[in-house]
Design goal:
Elements (H helix, E strand, L loop, with lengths): L2 H17 L2 H15 L3 H8 L19 H13 L5 H11 L8 H9 L2 H8 L19 H6 L14 E8 L10 E8 L5 E7 L3 H14 L6 E4 L8 H14 L4 E3 L9 H15 L8 H21 L5 E7 L2 E6 L5 H6 L6 H12 L3 H21 L7
Parallel strand pairs: 1-4, 4-5
Antiparallel strand pairs: 1-2, 2-3, 6-7
């Protein structure tokens, strides 16, 4: 018996069941139980329901966005390094003028999408890769720890030029031998980030990476915060910042507390988004690749990240019971935050604006892909080295 037939049969008894006496109700219940082979309680609940008026009509509001918009949203999401939906909403107006694979109607649909809509459309495409994290940091000498002050816990940054720095090892599965390292320097207030590649982890290479990175920043370094690794706590770095400290008449270099990664939280997250997502976790032990990686960082990757990739900054964190409620700012690119910073000269802002107008994010991505192929092909062609 179909569901429709069952409901029609129950309708025949519902009206009489409601006005029947107690004995007549028992008779009706027994009859329905015998015919439908239902539990007695199920029959009572069904007979007490309102009269069935037929199948319910589903009210579908229809899809607001076309299938072309959904397909191009997926393509853009992949091309834009799989941004989260809130960042994607803010980044699309800057990226779509350079996107030529769809018409203007589809672009209008993409610009109308909210963050929750994007999450709903991309839900089936999202994939999470779990990677094993490795660290090549070794503690620095106690002599240098006594010379470099610890950054205070109430370290509230109110001006540009306060940067955090960290290194990333391109060691693969082994820390033995000499291989490439990446130095990451990020400004706490604006999020402006620069990277530099080094051969080995020497103090001289770190100082050179700092000099190269500062030349590409729209501001000078006023405060340098690092961890307690030996690549930072050494004679070369201390001498370099001692000379700068004499010019600016204040201590420039500071360090975080040992074994407290959250003291360097701004740069720790950039190690993933600006280094690991670009070069991965494979071993790079060909010295010729260092110059290629530096060219990639300087001319392509840095421009893409600083001009076209929005970032969110934590406004406040409130404890609610056993959990924390976090509130974030509206996603903005580091370039947009630099333009809003009153301490940066107008000449620098004008130069950045002219550079931004000349850039195309999709062309930058094509160049990045071609450079990465050269780097990885060079690494494959190099003779295999035995690592323990």
């Amino acid at each position: 018996m179909s569901n429709r037939s069952i409901q029609e049969y129950l309708n025949l008894h519902r009206q009489s069941y409601r006005v029947a006496s107690w004995s007549d109700k028992q008779r009706i219940i027994n009859e329905v139980c015998r015919n439908l082979r239902w539990h007695r309680k199920s029959v009572i609940r069904s007979l007490n329901r309102p009269l069935w008026a037929g199948e319910k009509v589903k009210k579908n509001r229809g899809k607001k966005y076309s299938w072309q918009a959904e397909e191009h949203l997926k393509k853009l999401w992949l091309k834009m390094e799989q941004m989260c939906s809130k960042k994607l909403v803010q980044a699309l107006p800057n990226w779509l003028p350079h996107y030529t694979e769809c018409n203007e109607e589809v672009k209008k649909e993409l610009l109308q999408m909210s963050a929750s809509t994007i999450d709903r459309y991309l839900g089936r495409y999202r994939a999470i890769e779990q990677r094993r994290l490795r660290s090549g940091t070794k503690p620095g000498s106690k002599y240098f720890k006594n010379r470099i002050p610890i950054k205070p816990l109430d370290h509230n940054v109110t001006s540009v030029g306060t940067v955090e720095a960290d290194t990333v090892a391109h060691c693969g599965d082994s820390m033995s031998g000499v291989f490439a390292w990446s130095l990451t320097i990020t400004d706490v207030k604006t999020g402006w980030t620069e990277n530099a590649a080094m051969w080995g982890k020497s103090g001289k290479g770190v100082v050179q990476g700092i000099k190269d990175s500062e030349r590409n920043m729209p501001f000078t370094i006023n405060e340098f915060c690092c961890d307690n690794g030996s690549e930072f706590l050494n004679t070369q770095l201390l001498l370099y910042f001692s000379n700068l400290s004499k010019k600016k008449k204040k201590d420039i270099i500071k360090r975080g507390r040992p074994y407290r990664k959250n003291d360097q939280c701004h740069v720790e997250q950039k190690n993933n988004t600006h280094v690991r997502q670009l070069l991965g976790y494979s071993r790079i032990d060909n010295k010729e690749a260092v110059d290629l990686i530096n060219d990639l960082y300087l001319n392509y990757w840095s421009k893409l990240q600083n001009f076209f990739v929005p970032q969110m900054k934590l406004l406040r964190k409130t404890r609610v019971g056993a959990k924390y409620k976090r509130e974030y700012t509206k996603p903005m690119t580091p370039y947009e935050r630099v333009l809003l910073e009153p301490s940066i000269p107008q000449e620098v802002k004008h130069r950045l604006t002219q550079e931004y107008k000349a850039l195309n994010p999709f062309e930058l991505q094509k160049q990045i892909e071609s450079k990465l192929k050269i780097i990885f092909n060079l690494q494959k062609a190099s003779p295999r080295k035995e690592v323990a």
